[in-house]
User: What shape does this take?
Amino acid sequence: MLVIMRDHASQPEIQHVVALLSEAGAQAHLSGGEVKTIIGVIGDRETVYSLDLQGLPGVEEVIRVLKPYKLVGRDFQPEDTVVRVGPHATVGGGAVAVMAGPCSVESEEQMMQVARACREAGATMLRGGAYKPRSSPYAFQGMGVEGLQLLRAAADSVGLPVVTEVLDVRDAETVAEYADVLQVGARNMQNFMMLDELGTMGKPVLLKRGLAATIEETLSAAEYVLKGGNRNLMLCERGIRTFETYTRNTLDLAAVAALKTLTHLPIIVDPSHATGRRELVGVMARAGIVAGADGLMIEVHPDPEHAKCDGPQSLTPPDFAEMMESLAPLLEIQGSRLGWS
Amino acid sequence: MLVIMRDHASQPEIQHVVALLSEAGAQAHLSGGEVKTIIGVIGDRETVYSLDLQGLPGVEEVIRVLKPYKLVGRDFQPEDTVVRVGPHATVGGGAVAVMAGPCSVESEEQMMQVARACREAGATMLRGGAYKPRSSPYAFQGMGVEGLQLLRAAADSVGLPVVTEVLDVRDAETVAEYADVLQVGARNMQNFMMLDELGTMGKPVLLKRGLAATIEETLSAAEYVLKGGNRNLMLCERGIRTFETYTRNTLDLAAVAALKTLTHLPIIVDPSHATGRRELVGVMARAGIVAGADGLMIEVHPDPEHAKCDGPQSLTPPDFAEMMESLAPLLEIQGSRLGWS
Amino acid sequence: MLVIMRDHASQPEIQHVVALLSEAGAQAHLSGGEVKTIIGVIGDRETVYSLDLQGLPGVEEVIRVLKPYKLVGRDFQPEDTVVRVGPHATVGGGAVAVMAGPCSVESEEQMMQVARACREAGATMLRGGAYKPRSSPYAFQGMGVEGLQLLRAAADSVGLPVVTEVLDVRDAETVAEYADVLQVGARNMQNFMMLDELGTMGKPVLLKRGLAATIEETLSAAEYVLKGGNRNLMLCERGIRTFETYTRNTLDLAAVAALKTLTHLPIIVDPSHATGRRELVGVMARAGIVAGADGLMIEVHPDPEHAKCDGPQSLTPPDFAEMMESLAPLLEIQGSRLGWS
Amino acid sequence: MLVIMRDHASQPEIQHVVALLSEAGAQAHLSGGEVKTIIGVIGDRETVYSLDLQGLPGVEEVIRVLKPYKLVGRDFQPEDTVVRVGPHATVGGGAVAVMAGPCSVESEEQMMQVARACREAGATMLRGGAYKPRSSPYAFQGMGVEGLQLLRAAADSVGLPVVTEVLDVRDAETVAEYADVLQVGARNMQNFMMLDELGTMGKPVLLKRGLAATIEETLSAAEYVLKGGNRNLMLCERGIRTFETYTRNTLDLAAVAALKTLTHLPIIVDPSHATGRRELVGVMARAGIVAGADGLMIEVHPDPEHAKCDGPQSLTPPDFAEMMESLAPLLEIQGSRLGWS
Assistant: This one.
């Protein structure tokens, strides 16, 4: 941490800061010219993060150099984390996941149909929502446990693992009975109690970046899960909120490339939620792979016109199959492969 | 809802949309010129919100005219909601709340000191955090139940009601034992399960606007609580996330003025979290009152330099007393009064 | 400037940075612990701003402590700048300007009518656009020189000074013949060539904050004008672009309060463009005054329904008169007065 | 255009809107249920864009269905525009441009060195800034005409065309003497006077998206140039401003894919300015190509450590050569080729 003092800060002001630091068990290193003094602070992460010196007399700015995370960083673990999901699927270290399926589970027939189509086209996991976070209380909220059962049955019938969202921390255990990957939605990225809970469970977790979360905050949220002991974590870029309204969100592929340098965790890209437009899903999936993504999350629905949610961004099974074919040469160029063995 | 067809959309495309609408139980009204056809859709809120026609052949754009909320709107209830908190405090309808206290409960002494100071200066409620949402798992996370007990004891000693955050839906009952107002933090604004839960409880709720939530989404989140049966709801503007970094967030006072026209619920302003800078808290509190706020949430700490969180934005007791004095003439101009009887 | 080296940066990496600094004429001060080295850089503003060390081997981050501006800062000039406009109007140092008038000049009758109404209600300057920046080339672009003439004549008939926008640097001289204040619109805030030009002219300048400009960038743009020799500068907050769409922009009143601490220049608030909604203009004007604004810019039109631009946010003359009346008690509380003598 | 009336708007309110429309020469089509009336407006683009009905009594919302642009749209011209630059370079319709060179022209030696390196690696145009838009007046502002001369000489020596920025409309003619493509920077995207001027010149224009410009605004700005008669226009995505600070801007590749569906104009991607980080430039260039870009703009400097601007995001010649090699298989997959004959 660095404490930048105001121009011509007084000696008592400077000494006051130094005293507070020493009191808290941190070390202060002064360096300054005639006009400006800068105080370098050395201490452990927890100590330094508990210090709030901004606002003291004479203090102009406090800059935190120490990152708020450790376990998720490449400094801590240089090699890629590889997450195993079910007997056949892997993600990370060159293995690319394709998680496909409908926004929400609607019926047995829908799920069986979509599961078969996804499996045939090469998806490595089946996704589907049983609990749906909806802005309006008047929108369809999901089928709940029955949805989990239909999802599991459909996945089993084609031998795919299941990815589905935990919307309420109280349902985590129940969802874990049916799912292979527990998804944390964008709105829950900073639901720290849920992150704590999932950190103590063994199941792989997929953590989506919040609508307005920075890269650093996303990594800090990930740190909660790893700190709890669960190393089977994947992150997901699903678009951030900006002033642009043509697309549903702004897909931040540079964040994907940046995350690959900062963390060893696998990074998934969700072009369906990011763009909100069917015609952009395939092209952004391909761009995501080239940006370095370890996986894709794609909404597929046998009959998007009648989908209970997110129809406009869902691919039909033939569209999805076409997208999958178009990925192959790009995976080869990236030196990657679909994560299935 | 309006469905805007593309220029020169074909008759079969138009008829297909009409058929889907009719199938879903909604009515379609066509109006069009030579180039463009527009389909007006009439139906109940739930039906219309379950329709996702974007992405159909020939459809250019789908525009939702019906608001995703009802109970929170002025159309539904023109007169201001007045929320009673404890035996003496009220909020709304001209009664202005001042919720003051430290970011986090740290010790008995701290709480007793700050409670006395807040009461003396004219605060109408005592705030303090027992469970703290922190970006980093290495930062102080709050004292938990012990914090709730210290907060309650301090508040009782000066006769003020208590406002505190529910961070985990599983703690809602426990928090309700100690608190008079259950606060939902910005990160939980779209934690719909928690909103559902609080909607079934009788206690007043304070719902903070999410970091990247629109006015409409904030009202839709509020609708969850009212739909559950709990009409004792207050909203809180605490700054949104923008590209500006000088202030912690961007305080959106026009949203306060706009919300006063759109909803009957009381609106609270939190200039402490919004600005993150002590020197801006008082002035933005005053501007908030003039923008029409029904209350303020102010961080006060007896010793901000040693605060475990948010020191830089906390007022000292004398600063707070000064701020309170400066509010008096503005309340008079607004035709309002402190909500205490 | 501070150069934060990566953890365990090598001695050659550190020495390389020090050598580059010394080569450029800046001084390097090292301070470091076992893990991290930080290099403090001392030098003059121009030198330090020409150094781009980010991206060098071993460099983690470069932090600029020195502000990119000087003349506009309170450090350079602690007392408020007071700008004189015409024989009677002043802005700053307790004098509050009210610049009122239509979005665009449309006809002699319109201007005469609005000028009288504004003068009677207490406006201290007349505004109106002769050159209009419009997103679409198909929208009304203003009356040009004829508009300037109508604006001047109307202003003279009631004895008010004129504020109007310079849209093209080639028109600066022409506009200066008719106007007392040269306005730079938000889209031109970083049109540095125009700022250079206006810096060499004697006329007072009103510089609007860009749609996505930070406080620091706004002050840096202001520095261009002062560096050219023109000290008669006012800044204007007119809302920034965020994800919120209910209001046209997000009025950042905390930026107004912050700017008052950072710069000696007068700060104007434009609630008309910021909100884009007539019903919010008056209340945000009042909140702006309380936030510390030295002036207001208000769109007034005798017949908003037929306005050629910005009708929805224009006040009618009676609305404007009512707003002006409501300001009086607030100015008294602020210890300010209308800037007219 | 659609005018959505408030619930239960009165007949006189509705008739008033209809009368205003008819007065302006537009046609009104009413459609409504018991609660809500919607008025469809038919008229030409110019008429409809001059109508500002928001704010009228009884009007809830005005929705513009007609796009504010025409000539740039795929409806107007379905086939791709192909821009010819100099005798050998083309952009669009499968021809991909690579515009490479330093942020700013600094010396003859620097330019000769970089020109050779760019040419050898396969760049199709040479870029370089002679006039630099800098936030701070204390930063290097470019070499001016001398820079243009050095740029031209270096380009001629290797047979590449020149791309460079017009910062001041008064310099447009001068720049056109030396350059083959006139670049409009992000800060000037809505400098409509400059767009008008460039619209009347024959030279190809490269228009960069503004820092906070929507896709629609970018297309509207482009319309200014085409309306003036100049069809040789390219657009450039260079990152938008969001809350994320790890990258300099947020590269919006979905906007590239979207623009390819909306307009026939070639779209260039600038990963250097967008990311601000050397290590992300190559990967985002590749992702840009896959997103559908018709060209790239890449900062290359022989000695980034001593660059006068944007060193941290400049590639060295070997890095650039490596990037160029990595593009080849992607271009093949896209069915594209470098735009050089």
